[in-house]
Design a protein that fits this description.
The chain is α/β, with parallel strands linked by helices. Helices cover 33% and strands 26% of the residues. GO terms for molecular function: oxidoreductase activity.
Length: 333
Amino acid sequence: MKAFIIERYGKKEIGRIADMPEPALQDDGVLVEIHAAAVNVLDLKIRRGEFKLILPYRMPAILGHDVAGKVIRVGSRVQRFKPGDAVYARPEDLRIGTFAEKIAIKESSLAHKPANLTMEEAASVPLVALTAWQVLVEVAKLQKGQRVFIQAGSGGVGAIAIQLAKHLGAFVATTTSTGNVAWVKALGADLVIDYKKQDFESVLQDYDLVLNSQGNNELEKSLRILRRGGHLVSISGPPTPAFAVKRGLAWPLKQVLRLLSFGIRHKARQSGITYTFLFMRADGDQLQKMTSLLESGALKPVVDCVFPFAETAEALAYVAAGRTKGKIVIKVR
């Protein structure tokens, strides 16, 4: 099969389309014919080698964390899916590879595709929707009437997180650039801060929750806008010792993460704030809940543009430029 691969980690690695073996199907697996995939910042970070200690991929590696397609075959223990079913997923860690013609995915990571979405629209959803759900519902347990600040509202995670937070009844503030202010308001944000004109730290105060997706500077500012008892959840780091334990990482790596996150954890404790690092995980049951929200119209996918499979490298470069509105999709079939 054709697949977009990287052969080494590094900032200069671009990747290329090559012939790769068809993925092996395990008893609990589903072989999916890929119709569309989507690009995430995570793909860029993996290509650069930023997660090689936590996610040691064997080279050559196929990138891609979002998929929509149709079931070809199922393993002997699979019960919820059959050949011909339209499905979508964020494959589990170490078994990614959606920039390809086929992929084998665990049944537990898969969900039925929303009937009202195209393959391209469905492919844009899994990683960002699961991230939003795991931050807002699973970790923060966001309640109606609470105030949440979601950074980078025009990005992939931000665009879905705003919609989900509004569905849950929260007051939502976010940041974006001048040209996207009206667009982000249309997603449902109550307060939109143009980061080119204002610093969110000077505008916001006494918030219950921050979803941080930016750098260390924004992370520290986020502490100052939270009320005592508030929650800072970061999807961009630094990882914590609790994350290391959950991932079963080796003791030396646990100590590295302890040092990396010591500063923000210490400042959070001093302010009476909970700090959590979240590295989203594949979860078909959660994704099936998102299917219901998408089919009801409570959530809508946000697709910036679609690239043909032959231009996967260009799609990655587009995301690397940092000006996307929602998600970039790759049409594979």
